[in-house]
Design goal:
398 residues; four-stranded mixed β-sheet; 45% helix; binds flavin-adenine dinucleotide
Length: 398
């Protein structure tokens, strides 16, 4: 692993930092990340921010230039994430489109699909969601039941998805359906690009323990999807979804690492102020131990991601580091959020309404939201299975 940046990479960092310094809006207004309680004002703010990023050529930073991206190298992409987190830039509204669906369309899409969707993903004019999980299919996704029947020019879709993030805002969905019920379970699936305003789609928000409706149930009743919206080959949808999951790990992994570091800095300023039983908590040996552990966890996350990066830069396919990073990040974040609440003493148990993403109830909100980290994007049990079997080469569990 080489920790040094080349002069070209440093120049990239300086150019980006200069742009962010003049363009990142002050951190005292609307929500800086899309959250379900977002008001119309918040949404307009986030839409405007993505358009500003897009018009300045920083959206889709690692997408190839021929598709409207900046064509940044892997290392430049990492620098991009690091600077965005360090300068507290607002999140990009269409994150699922930019990081997952867009790159998947670039890999598997037809020319027509690329023309129709890519520019709108970059600009944020279209917001995307992912419809994979179903009430009886989560970890075992290959068993899904939503059926798409082939009617020559179009498919007719019937079934139900669940936990569909952003479905309430999205106008498009990358949907995984069964097109051949007689084939072995992973072989009869197809991926469809579905217009969420199609007749027959209804969306029911689900309330989570933060009090929000982050995700939704989505019902499909005789929904017609044109054949031209099939992504990849018919009955080869599993390959498309594997591609999308690979982009998810790659695209979001580094950002989370740097966001975690930022959270650590917030925690450090908190620990300097907080007092317990009349004494500053920074003198408490247990608290000092937990802070040191949080710092170590952040460093381990970073190094593991650098290891994955080195592997990719040597031309190897994405390895199991992605699973280790996701597992470690989810559990580190939960521990750090627990600590953030603990620092506030008994008052930490109080929780009223979520005010802003960074303001009131910051730690309480983070504590509750972080419970989902060990479920979303692959549960910790499933990741441990992958690591046991593919990294440690242990025999398969029964
Ligand atoms: C915040 C959030 C956002 C999400 N967003 C989306 C989205 O946008 N689109 C989408 O399609 N899905 C989304 N999901 C769904 C997510 O992908 C699933 O929740 C996840 O894959 C687990 O599936 P499940 O909930 O059906 O649990 P199950 O698969 O039923 O698992 C239940 C429990 O059994 C354990 N388990 C299952 N199989 C095994 C095994 N073989 N070995 C050991 N333990 C096992 C699991 O680890 C878990 O603890 C989201 C989930 C969350 C929490």
């Amino acid at each position: 692993m080489d920790f040094h940046f080349t002069p070209e990479q440093e120049a990239f960092r300086q150019e980006l930092r200069a742009w962010l310094t003049t363009h990142v809006p002050a951190d005292d207004g609307p929500l800086r990340h899309l959250q379900p309680q977002a008001s119309d004002e918040d949404l307009t703010f986030l839409k405007d921010w993505q358009r500003t990023v897009y018009e300045s050529g920083w959206a889709g930073v690692s997408w190839p230039q021929e598709y409207g991206g900046r064509g940044a190298s892997l290392v430049e992409r990492v620098i991009f994430d690091e600077e965005m987190a360090a300068l507290k830039a607002p999140g990009l509204l269409n994150v699922l489109g930019l990081e997952i669906v867009g790159p998947t369309i670039i890999t598997h899409g037809t020319m027509g699909q690329k023309k129709k969707h890519l520019a709108n993903i970059l600009s944020g004019d279209d917001i995307w969601s992912q419809g994979y999980s179903e009430p009886n299919s989560g970890s075992d996704l290959g068993s899904l039941q939503t059926l798409a029947v082939d009617h020559a020019d179009y498919f007719v879709v019937n079934g139900q998805k669940v936990w569909t993030s952003l479905a309430g805002y999205a106008n498009w969905c990358l949907l995984l359906v069964r097109t051949d019920p007689d084939a072995p379970k992973h072989k009869g699936l197809s991926a469809l690009l579905v217009d969420m305003h199609s007749p027959g789609i209804s969306i029911k928000p689900l309330r989570t323990m933060t009090g929000e409706s982050e995700f939704n149930e989505v019902f499909f009743e005789d929904v017609q999807v044109p054949k031209s919206h099939l992504l990849g080959e018919q009955n080869q949808g599993w390959q498309v979804i594997i591609t999308s999951l690979m982009f998810e790990r790659q695209g979001l992994g580094f950002y989370f690492t740097f966001a975690q570091k930022r959270l650590y800095e917030d925690m450090r300023s908190e620990v300097k102020k907080a007092r317990r039983y009349g004494a500053p908590i920074r003198t408490d040996p247990l608290m000092r131990q937990k802070m040191a552990q949080a710092y170590i966890d952040c460093e381990v996350l970073k190094l593991n991601n650098y290891r994955a990066l080195t592997r990719l830069m040597r031309g190897n396919p994405a390895g199991p580091e992605g699973s280790i990073a996701k597992l470690h990040w989810a559990e580190t974040n939960q521990r750090m959020q627990d600590l953030g609440v603990e620092m506030q003493g008994v008052g930490g148990q109080l929780y009223q309404e979520v005010e802003t993403s960074e303001g009131g109830n910051y730690w309480q909100y983070g504590f509750l939201r972080s419970r989902a980290n060990t479920i979303e994007g692959g549960t910790s049990e499933i990741l441990r299975n992958i690591i046991a079997e593919r990294v440690l080469q242990l025999p398969k569990g029964r």
